[in-house]
Design brief:
Rossmann fold; CBS-domain; six-stranded mixed beta sheet; four-stranded antiparallel beta sheet; 16 helices; 16 strands
Length: 412
């Protein structure tokens, strides 16, 4: 069951909200609506679910509505219409007291500017949320120290924020949120004020913490590379609307519209796309049941000179070339006797940038295997080079696999 559910959420700033909403339905731009109604459409008819343990990234350019959306989730901004459910409780209908409890115990927010108290130590900052909740001193100190330890900051607990670097200050902000042991973290441009190297370190820290803690994290960013790096799924916004929701691979390989396609066109796809995105259908031969004649017949039919050799369960055994199969037939051998084991296998989630060196030095295509180690595809040098050069030879502009003859994929 989803931990967070957002349904038809809308926020219009101004008084003539209905007229503004009608203009949105008519396809009018935010600028036209503002000029004619003095109302600003911050978010319009947004719906999505976030699962437990998921990092859900909301991204878009300035003015897209992403920061408004995250503040609607915990009602720092009041919605015009729609519903927000957290653990099945309707946040949009909560009383002020219930909302206050939600923010103290279930939902925590990490801001871009760290939000630390300069006259409190690192430990006292980390304790703050628990202090507000009325947790006893000894217990809140223990929890705060655990959160600081998880964030690599325990040895700095008696220092003050001004004594720390920007990255370390942001770690304190994250530790404060973790100390509350909230189910949900809302992170609004949390790393955007940091320099690139520190920012990457923080992304690594967040991913490492999430692997252990499995929180629900809703992360706001304007940086597509950051979104692709940390997001399990990404919601791309424009003018208050969600243009597309999907994994990074889905958004890159199958953009929903021209805006998404243009937004993502400058991304280094080799650092995002995986073997699964560029692999072709594998042409295989079962060496436990098939013989040399079957192998040669299949090669002639498919117009290739090599097949992947697998067993009955499709576990990779190597490869069979036409020359191998001919030798086996002439010498009365089985295919098992002439298998070339010089075929490397890769995980379906291997990044293209990591595949490049493997395929460059491999005399044969790379076999792609699933979680059970069974062959599901094959990667050839041309597909990798195309992806590395951002010339997508495997996935066309419509996000579809190319229609080239499948047999060519195995003849490296």
């Amino acid at each position: 069951m989803s931990k967070v559910r957002v349904r038809n959420l809308t926020k219009v700033f101004g008084k003539r909200t209905q007229q503004a909403l009608n203009m949105v339905k008519d396809g009018k731009s935010k600028q036209d609506i503002l000029e004619q109604t003095d109302a600003t459409v911050g978010v319009h008819n947004v719906s999505f679910d976030v699962e437990e343990g998921e990092i859900f990234v909301i991204m878009g350019l300035s003015g897209s509505g992403k920061s408004t959306l995250v503040r609607l989730i915990n009602r720092l901004i009041e919605p015009t219409s729609g519903n927000i459910y957290i653990n099945e409780a309707d946040v949009s209908k909560m009383s002020k007291e219930a909302l206050r409890q939600l923010r103290r115990t279930k939902v925590n927010m990490v801001f871009q500017n760290f939000g630390l108290f300069p006259k409190r130590t690192v430990l006292e900052n980390a304790e703050y949320g628990l202090e507000v909740r009325g947790v006893a001193k000894e217990e809140r100190q223990k929890k705060a120290e655990k959160a600081l330890d998880d964030s690599g900051l325990l040895s700095f607990k008696n220092q003050y924020p001004e004594q720390l670097s920007g990255g370390m200050q942001q770690r304190v902000g994250l530790a404060r949120a973790l100390a509350n042991d909230s189910d949900i973290l809302l992170m609004d441009e949390a790393f955007s004020a940091l320099d690139p190297l520190i920012r990457r370190d923080m992304q690594d820290d967040l991913l490492e913490l999430q692997e252990r803690l499995q929180k629900v994290i809703i992360f706001i960013t304007h940086d597509l590379n950051e979104a692709l790096r940390i997001g399990d799924r990404i919601a791309l916004m424009r003018d208050g609307k969600i243009m597309q929701i999907g994994t990074g691979e889905e958004i890159l390989t199958n953009p929903a519209n021209d805006f998404v396609r243009e937004f993502t066109e400058d991304v280094d796809r080799s650092k995002v796309l995986t073997a699964e995105n560029i692999m072709e259908h594998p042409l295989t031969i079962n060496v436990e049941t098939d013989g040399p004649n079957v192998a040669l017949q299949r090669m002639r039919k498919e117009e290739v000179s090599m097949l992947l050799a697998v067993d009955r369960k499709r576990y990779l055994k190597g490869s069979i070339t036409a020359e191998n199969a001919l030798d086996a037939r002439e010498q009365g051998k089985t295919l098992k006797d002439v298998i070339d084991k010089n075929v490397q296998k890769i995980d379906r989630y291997a990044l293209i940038t990591d595949i490049f060196n493997l395929i460059y030095n491999s005399p044969a295509p790379l076999a792609v295997v699933d979680e059970t180690d069974r062959v599901i595809g094959v990667v050839v040098r041309g597909s990798v080079i195309g992806a590395m050069s951002d010339k997508d030879t495997t996935i066309n502009n419509n996000g579809e696999k190319s229609k080239e003859k499948e047999g060519a994929n195995i003849d490296a």
